[in-house]
């Protein structure tokens, strides 16, 4: 059998030409080579694979913001007196007043200082008693000028934590049992000469979850629920302090 | 390269072990069940033996206002005032944990909701008689139990569960009467309190 004439070898970098004279198909070949090289690079060591995945994730997420800081969601505003669900509590803040001394139950303050009492209600919906500090940490005043602590020392407004009182009898409320709706007074102290006509509060709710360290469940992870703006006025004459009827 | 893949395999093994461990930990019986206290049932008027002492409920009263020597306390619910005596067994003890549990067992109201309501610890064999006070919604009182422990942590320990013997009629009467109660002075030692 006669040998067929051997075809002339084609240089490796010469793309195959179309039989009908169309331009050579370079793009699929380039993509194939790039894919092959990328695969070789990624599998060369085990550590390149997660790096490649992370880089790809960054590239894919770039159109949606990538690592840019997300805009915080606007906190809703609730009308004064309306009940807010702030787990485990249902809270309403109704009004506030300022006075040198709400009632005889409260100690006299240093000259130039006065109390700011915020009236409202609270109900706990947890199935057992929770500490009152859970509520006082969930209520944050944002614009009380010149707050002072219980010792009369100036503090930043972000550090201002109220004292919690039962408004029925003007006594401290240290724990809150389930399904009991208390009329409350949240008591702040300030050394401001002039006070605004309203105060803004941020209410936070908690999540009841297992605490990894102790394996017990507790209310953790405060998250802002809403803001409440309450009117602030001087204490009316004859108006009891944090209490509406101290009959002791 | 084989060595590198071996390292990756070890890392993957550790990760899988962690995942399996977590799944096991969460699927096994809940610790709140496995560590729950040993409940010792009793009724008002009878001695209930705990690991750390003996508890006896002397009397139970309901009121809308409670007066202590220093303060007066109102409540949006009803005050449950339980006269109780504790005799420590081997160590100095007091009523460290006290609560009222609803008849359904799904709600618990602990004591000391207001400041300065406490009871002193006494040495072994020396009884202390106190008024224990609780704020409870009226609708949860019928059939409620008193829970008593001398320990802050009751897990794996004894817990007295004493039927307070409260009825819906007693609750309605207390609400209608708007009664007030003055708490008794704490008694350390013998006597009926």
Outline of this structure?
With 248 residues, chain A is an alpha+beta fold. In chain A, 16% of the residues lie in helices and 33% in strands.
Describe this structure in words.
- Chain A is an alpha+beta fold.
- Chain A has a domain of 158 residues: Sandwich (Immunoglobulin-like).
- Chain A has three helices and 13 strands.
- In chain A, strands 1, 2, 3, 4, 6, 7, 8, 9, 11, 12 and 13 form an eleven-stranded mixed beta sheet that branches.
- The N terminus and C terminus of chain A are likely disordered.
- Chain B is α+β, with helices and mostly antiparallel strands.
- Chain B folds into two domains: 30 residues; 151 residues, Immunoglobulin-like (Sandwich).
- Chain B contains three helices and eleven strands, in the order ααβββββββββαββ.
- In chain B, the strands form two sheets. In chain B, strands 2, 3, 4, 7, 10 and 11 form a six-stranded mixed beta sheet that branches. A five-stranded mixed beta sheet of chain B has the order 1-9-8-5-6, with no helix packed on it.
- In chain B, β2 and β3 form a beta hairpin.
- The longest helix of chain B is centred in the N-terminal third of the chain and has 26 residues.
- The model of chain B has no long low-confidence stretch (mean pLDDT 91).
- The chains are: A alpha+beta (248), B alpha+beta (193).
- At the A-B interface, β9, β10 and β11 of A face α1, β4, β6 and β7 of B.
Total count of helical runs of at least 4 residues of chain A: 3
Flag low-confidence runs of chain B. none
Q: Please tell me the overall pLDDT of chain A.
A: 86
Overall geometry of chain A comes to: elongated
Low-pLDDT stretches of chain A are 1-15, 243-248
First and last CA, distance of chain A: 127 Å
Specify the CATH architecture of the largest domain in chain B: Sandwich
Query: Compute the gyration radius of chain B: what is it?
Result: 23 Å
Question: What is the annotated CATH architecture of the domain at 77-234 in chain A?
Answer: Sandwich
Please name the two chains that share the biggest interface, counting residues whose Cβ lies under 8 Å from a Cβ on the partner chain.
A-B, 28 and 30 residues
Residue share in helix of chain B: 10-25%
Strand content of chain B: 35-45%
SSE order of chain B: HHEEEEEEEEEHEE
């Amino acid at each position: 059998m006669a040998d067929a004439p051997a075809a002339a070898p084609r240089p490796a970098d010469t793309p195959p030409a179309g039989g009908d004279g169309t331009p050579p198909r370079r793009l699929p070949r380039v993509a194939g080579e790039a894919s092959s090289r990328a695969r070789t690079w990624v599998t060369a060591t085990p550590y390149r694979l997660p790096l490649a995945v992370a880089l790809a994730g960054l590239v894919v997420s770039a159109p949606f913001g990538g690592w840019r800081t997300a805009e915080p969601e606007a906190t809703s505003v609730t009308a004064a007196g309306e009940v807010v669900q702030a787990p485990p509590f249902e809270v309403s803040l109704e009004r506030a007043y300022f006075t040198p001394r709400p009632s005889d139950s409260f100690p006299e303050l240093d000259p130039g200082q006065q109390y700011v009492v915020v009236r409202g209600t609270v109900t706990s919906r947890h199935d057992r008693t929770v500490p009152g500090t859970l509520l006082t940490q969930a209520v944050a005043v944002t614009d009380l000028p010149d707050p002072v602590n219980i010792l009369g020392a100036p503090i930043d407004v972000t550090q201002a934590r109220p004292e919690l009182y039962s408004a029925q009898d003007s006594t401290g409320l240290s724990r809150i049992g389930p399904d009991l709706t208390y009329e409350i007074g949240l008591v702040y102290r300030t050394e401001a000469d002039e006070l605004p006509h309203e105060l803004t509060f941020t209410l936070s709710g908690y999540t009841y979850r297992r605490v990894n360290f102790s394996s017990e469940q507790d209310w953790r992870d405060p998250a802002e629920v809403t803001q409440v703006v309450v009117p602030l006025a001087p204490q009316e004459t004859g108006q009891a302090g944090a209490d509406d009827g101290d009959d002791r | 390269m084989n060595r590198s893949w071996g390292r990756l395999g070890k890392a993957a093994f550790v990760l899988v072990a962690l995942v399996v461990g977590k799944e096991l930990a969460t699927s096994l019986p809940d610790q709140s069940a496995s560590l729950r206290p040993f409940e010792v049932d009793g009724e008002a008027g009878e001695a209930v033996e705990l690991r750390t002492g003996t508890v006896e409920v002397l009397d139970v009263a309901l009121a809308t206002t409670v007066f202590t020597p220093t303060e007066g306390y109102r409540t949006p619910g009803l005050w449950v005032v339980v006269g109780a005596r504790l005799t420590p067994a081997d160590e100095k003890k007091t009523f460290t944990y006290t609560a009222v549990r609803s008849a359904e067992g799904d709600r618990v109201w602990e004591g000391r909701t207001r400041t300065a309501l406490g009871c002193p610890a006494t040495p072994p064999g020396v009884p202390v008689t106190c008024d224990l006070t609780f704020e409870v919604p009226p609708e949860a009182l019928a059939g409620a139990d008193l829970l008593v422990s001398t320990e802050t942590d009751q897990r794996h320990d004894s817990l007295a569960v004493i039927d307070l013997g409260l009825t819906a009629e007693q609750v309605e009467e207390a609400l209608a009467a708007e009664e007030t109660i003055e708490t008794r002075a704490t008694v350390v030692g013998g006597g009926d309190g």
